[in-house]
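Our preliminary data section would be incomplete without showing what the modeling component actually yields. Below, a chain of 166 amino acids is followed by its predicted structure, encoded as tokens that our downstream tools consume directly.
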Amino acid sequence: MIPPLLLRSFLAVAETGSFTRAAGRLGLRQSTVSQHIRKLEEQLRRTLFARDTHAVGLTPEGDALLPFARQVLDAQARMQRFLEGTQLRGRIRLGASEDYVSARLAEVLAGFTRTHSAVDLELTVGLSGLLYERFDAGELDVIVVKRRRGDPRGQLAWREALAWVG
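Predicted structure:
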């Protein structure tokens, strides 16, 4: 039997392409995630990741394991929700600036929809100003946008470095 914790670490490394980013996502230390992957590879007697000094990628065997790991973790999450009886249900109307949809938000939303399959997530992508207007009009429940100067609402989700190219 493979412990779900090892599969969670496997999935996080596979999705982020980095042991460090996977550790950040899971709230663990990088060394702990590395240990989880080592234990999983030993238990399966397979090399799941091709590693070099700059990148981590799935081997063909790791790629083959990916859908099984997702199914096991999804089944565990459904069982947990059933046993807890607190499954989220309903609709969330989310607005997001184009700047964030293709970056971190995609992986966050994928994880949310896997965990909360009974929630109907409606995503609206647009410019920050228009999303603020729709939020203020009650047409959106949550928005992920650049904060307007002087607007006290909102909570910092993450910071990004700005680069000048040219």
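Strands lie at 49-51, 56-58, 90-97, 119-126, 142-144. Residues 88-166 form a domain with the D-Maltodextrin-Binding Protein; domain 2 fold (CATH 3.40.190.10). Preliminary results of this kind motivate Aim 1 of the renewal.
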